[in-house]
Every structure is written in C-alpha cells, then in structure tokens.
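Regression test case RT-17, inverse folding.

Input:
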C-alpha cells in the first residue's frame, strides 16, 4: 500500500467511526495532542476532548448522521512522515443530503506517521458558503 493509500485509509476509518456513532474509535485516529477546529471555529485540543465532544454529538444532535466521505482529496507529503490532505466533506442528518442541508465543508487534515501508523494531528473544518449571498 502506498503512503497516499495509507493516509486515505485513515480518512475512511474516520468516516466509518462517525457513521457508526463510535466516538472512541473516531478519537483514536487522532494524536493525543491533536487540534480539532470545528466549522464554527472552536478548537478542541487533545484526543480526550475530541472523544467527549463527539460522544455528546453522536448521542445528541448528530445521532444517526452520516459522513459523506471526502471526495477528491488532495494529498501531499512535505516530509516522509507528514501528510496534508485538503478535501470536501460533509455530514447529513436523518438520511438526507449534506448539500441540500447546507452541511458541506472543505476540510484540512495534517497526519503524522507514528510507529502504530498514520494519525491525524490537526483538523480544520470550514463550512462552504457563498459570501456573495451574505452581501
């Protein structure tokens, strides 16, 4: 498996964990000191906060939501053990469509290769919007 395939497999496991509502499995794909920046700008530093916040989301407002995948991901390796991924993404509620629900984002991941494999050390979620519509 190439490095790119390994990195994309981590994103696949993130989607699988989200789609099964498993906050522990989701958080385990992040480094202990990861930064997780939500679409509204809140930083959740550390695996523990990532897990607890997602547990609350998966048991509450995002129960049953589905992560639609990461589309055409751009993956680059500034170093052998660092990957930067920029991709589309989005979650849909109640079996709906993420785009129709206005829940499409551009996401950025920084992954590092640890002895156990690739882990996300930084994540940024930016909700896609049309600034002209706000004007």
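Golden output:
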């Amino acid at each position: 498996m190439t490095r790119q395939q390994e990195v994309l497999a981590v994103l696949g496991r993130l989607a699988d964990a989200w789609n099964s509502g498993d906050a522990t499995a989701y958080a385990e794909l992040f480094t202990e000191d990861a930064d997780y920046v939500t679409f509204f700008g809140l930083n959740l530093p550390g695996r523990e906060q990532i897990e607890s916040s997602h547990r609350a989301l998966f048991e509450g407002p995002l129960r049953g939501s589905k992560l639609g995948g990461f589309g055409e991901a751009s993956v680059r390796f500034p170093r052998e053990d660092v990957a930067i991924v920029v991709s589309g993404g989005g979650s849909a509620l109640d079996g709906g469509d993420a785009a129709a629900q206005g829940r499409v984002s551009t996401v950025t991941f920084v992954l590092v290769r640890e002895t156990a494999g690739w882990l996300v050390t930084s994540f940024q979620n930016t909700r896609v919007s049309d600034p002209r519509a706000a004007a």
